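*** Protein under study ***
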Amino acid sequence: MPTLLSVLLVHWNTRDDLRESLEALREYPYSRGAQEVIVVDNASEDGAAEMVRESFPEVRLIANPANELYAHGVNQCADAATGDLLLLLNPDAQVQAGTLDTLSAFLDSKPDAAAVAPKLIHENGAVQASVRGFPSPVALLGEFLLLSRVWKSSKTWASWRMPTFDYNAPGEAPQPMASCFLIRREAWRKVGAMDERFPLYFNDADWCLRAYTAGYRIYYTPDTAAKHGYGGTTRRVRRAAVWESRRAMLRFLGKQYADKTPMPLLWLLTVLITLDAWVRTGRWGQSLGKWGGETTPDSLRVELERERRSV
């Protein structure tokens, strides 16, 4: 039976990347049914909304008056979509010939699948490490104490980054990068929308874990690929992104694991996560700007305890 596939794109100031992504969708459309493309523009200042209106009239554009961030934008797209299949697609990702059809056919072959992700490749064709496990407390302990680099095949210490994952074989992939991620509409309804308490990071990890809890599986297939770059940002924005990512990691731990993890271990992880952010940004005591004030191990621990009480 022919299906309708809805492509969901959320962007902020990525006009050139967005154009390339939309051009690829136009060149390599879904052929197992109809296709609709929905773009949420989060108050971009680079003329992207005008570009979409003028160059891609077939695209449904939702222009937000303010930057509502990624998770909210995805939920906006999903609410507006009418498809049986929902493709989360980053503006810096481009589908290739057959990508959409292959992903759709893969879901047809796996009744227990909530979603599937393709192989992601760089501009030069190199395969990206795009699959991770869930960031459980033990997995994060292995990551931040570098145990995952010593025991790379360990299903305990290396279970988050999964450095030995076989990108040449199809199989379960607990948490693939959602840069190109095809979801059954039925699963989206059952699992629920993106949790907007994770506005930028870990919303995909949270959704995938909820999908597993609901009885679904997530898959990866190397039989098709999407080209994926990394959007350019200033050094200042990258620093802020590191801190927001680490704050989201704490929120994720608080939501998914706090009720079954000893508090001393959570406190230790709070310290390790904070130190990791300091090292990555190169600024001790880096401010989080709009996401919060001075960030210290104590302030992140307080946030973790707040998340723990909310679940």
